[in-house]
């Protein structure tokens, strides 16, 4: 019985830890909607990331469209993910988003609403810190 309780405690602690990492808090009450049109194919935003809180954006895209993103900050490297409801998990696009010399694109695999999240890496983030950043996205 004692080993069973210890196992339950370990599983519960592991579950809480994983949930804390997977469910980062959004700084915005809801994703900031980006609207693209034939005349408007790019979007720019300047913002602040506080601690391990994310900033979230949403846009509508069509399967096969390509997006180019750039996220820059003064000092800290930020992570960037993209998610669609049909995807099992978010895709890390940090490598194509945080290198200003890189001109890689991400091809949208589905038609529908996408969500982009931007945040600081937990090992870099400091308590009560904030990070200014700029974000731009182009769609073709």
Describe the structure.
The protein is α+β, with helices and mostly antiparallel strands and 140 residues long. The chain has a single domain (25-139), classed as Sandwich (Jelly Rolls). The protein is built from two helices and nine strands; from the N terminus they run αββββββαβββ. A hairpin with a 7-residue loop joins β5 and β6 (91-92). The protein starts with a helix and ends with a strand.
Protein topology:
Layout lengths: L1 H21 L9 E3 L7 E9 L4 E7 L4 E8 L4 E6 L7 E2 L1 H4 L8 E2 L4 E9 L9 E10 L1
Parallel strand pairs: 1-3
Antiparallel strand pairs: 2-9, 3-8, 4-7, 4-9, 5-6, 5-8
The largest sheet has its strands arranged as 1-3-8-5-6
What's the domain count? 1
CATH class: Mainly Beta
CATH-derived architecture: Sandwich
Structural class comes to alpha+beta
Number of helices: 2
Q: Label the overall shape.
A: globular
Unreliable segments (pLDDT under 50, ≥5 consecutive)? 1-26
- Give average pLDDT, whole number: 79
Rounded radius of gyration (Å)? 18 Å
Order of helices and strands: HEEEEEEHEEE
> Biggest sheet, open or closed, and with what strands and sense?
5 strands, mixed
């Amino acid at each position: 019985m004692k080993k069973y309780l210890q196992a339950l405690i370990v599983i519960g602690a592991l579950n809480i830890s994983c949930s804390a990492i997977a469910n980062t808090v959004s700084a915005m009450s809801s994703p900031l909607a980006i609207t693209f049109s034939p005349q408007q194919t790019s979007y720019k935003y300047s913002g602040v990331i506080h601690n391990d809180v994310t900033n979230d954006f949403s846009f509508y895209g069509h399967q096969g469209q390509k997006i180019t993103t750039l996220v820059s900050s003064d000092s800290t490297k930020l992570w960037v993910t993209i998610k669609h409801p049909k995807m099992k998990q978010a895709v890390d696009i940090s490598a194509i988003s945080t290198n200003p010399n890189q001109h890689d694109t991400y091809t949208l695999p589905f038609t529908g609403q996408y969500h982009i999240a931007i945040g600081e890496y937990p090992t870099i983030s400091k308590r009560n810190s904030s990070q200014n950043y700029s974000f731009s996205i182009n769609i073709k």
